[in-house]
Amino acid sequence: MTDDTERFLDARQKRRMAAEDRFLSRIEKREAAAEAMIGELNSGKLYVYPVGGKYREGTRAELIAFLIRNNYV
What we know:
Blueprint (H helix, E strand, L loop, with lengths): L1 H36 L1 E2 L5 E3 L7 E3 L1 H10 L4
Antiparallel strand pairs: 1-2, 2-3
Helix pairs in contact: 1-2
């Protein structure tokens, strides 16, 4: 009975870890796509103007969060 329980718990842990890896890889891909959409003005400010979206200035982290939150990437 103990062997079955251990195998069950190991399989559950492996599934959980695989799901977490898939989630992290999706997030990394979205962040990379958002990073490519960010531009820099001559003054050194960062901006983003997504297709069908609103112009926005801010820090790199704010702009990436904005793009992901509003599903532009």
